[in-house]
Amino acid sequence: MTRFSRNLTLSALFLTLAFSCPLAAQEPPFQDGEYANLILNFRHLIKADLLHARMEVSREDNDYRAVITANTTRFWDSIYSVSDTFSCRFTPDVRPVDYIRNVHEGDYWARALCTWNEDASLLRLQGDKRNRPHRDTTYTDPVMIRDLINVIFHLRTVDPDELMAPKPYLMIVDKDLIDLKLRFVGREVKKIPGLGRCRTLKFAATMNTRLAGDEEDEHTVGGNSNGKERLFFWLSDDENRLMVYFTMPISVGTINGRTVSFGGLKYPFTALEE
Predict the structure, then answer these.
(1) Maximum CA extent, the chain
(2) What is the value of pTM for the model shown?
(3) CA nearest 37: which of 192, 240, 176, 244?
(4) What is the dihedral of CA 221, 226, 230, 233, to 10 degrees?
(5) What is the CB neighbour count within 10 angstroms for residue 273?
(6) With contact defined as beta carbons under 8 Å apart, do 254 and 248 qualify?
(7) N or C: which end of the chain has fewer CB within 10 A?
């Protein structure tokens, strides 16, 4: 399993990393039955659509369950097959409950289960991967640790004006802790291939690895930003706050993700221009 392919998979998931800090006493902007289909595009010497991804939201008891599946497109599947699933359970106020990661890329595989205690102050990670020993690790930090999908949905509930100054987040990716600082850049009309001209909220983020794992696995989410904003994403400027586009660098080239279709939204999608 190469560092590039790990970058690719985590970037595929990062395509959904695009939303922001809860608005008190308001209903979340998502609901049971929401889904979005996305395409992941890679740019380095060539420009190619590599992955299809789908995000689906459901209810699980009183909580929400969000599942992301990512698979290589038909052409690239014959060259290097990717079939990944990421699943996250969280409370209505977006407190993490569990996170399941199941990755199959070429002849590489990895599985991980993250579980939080009741107040989400303690995280336990249990993981296995091809040719690696079983891992069972506990993390604690004054800042709540979130998984990738949980960051997505927590971010969707934000008032963007609260992010005029960078807001810190702490995220677990594989076995590393990643410091994120997210900032609201401003409103922008952006042309999204397959979707159209969309009124959006633009955000930027820096990323720095706080706790690195094995050298081979280091910096799988685009490396350290060193204070530079390297991840950019655009949410629909309506009540849904749906992620419609993102871009981020990887070890070689750039990954772009775009939403091409959606359904089951809680509110009418009013961000498209006529």
Answers:
(1) 55
(2) 0.83
(3) 244
(4) 80
(5) 9
(6) yes
(7) C
Distance CA(66)–CA(88), nearest Å, equals 5
Neighbours of 4 (CB within 10 A): 16
SS3 for 42? strand
Place of tokens 């290589």: 72
- Could you tell me how far CA 184 lies from the centroid of its own chain? 17
Q: Which residue in the block uniquely carries the two structure tokens 């800042």? A: 143
Rounded CA-CA distance 87/65 in Å is: 7
Q: Alpha carbon of 74 to those of 49, 50, 81, 121, 274: distances in Å?
A: 10, 9, 9, 42, 33
Element spanning 185, H or E: strand 176-192
Domain chopping of the chain, boundaries: 3-263
Distance, CA of 131 to CA of 140 (rounded, Å): 28
pLDDT band at 8 (very low <50, low <70, confident <90, very high): very low
What stretches of 78-117 show up as alpha helix (H) in DSSP? none
Q: Which amino acid is at 43?
A: R
How do residues 19-74 score in pLDDT, each as one tens digit?
A: 333 443 468 999 999 999 999 888 765 678 889 999 999 999 999 999 999 999 98
> Which amino acid, 126?
Q
- Measured between alpha carbons, how far is residue 119 from residues 23, 40, 97 in Å? 19, 35, 9
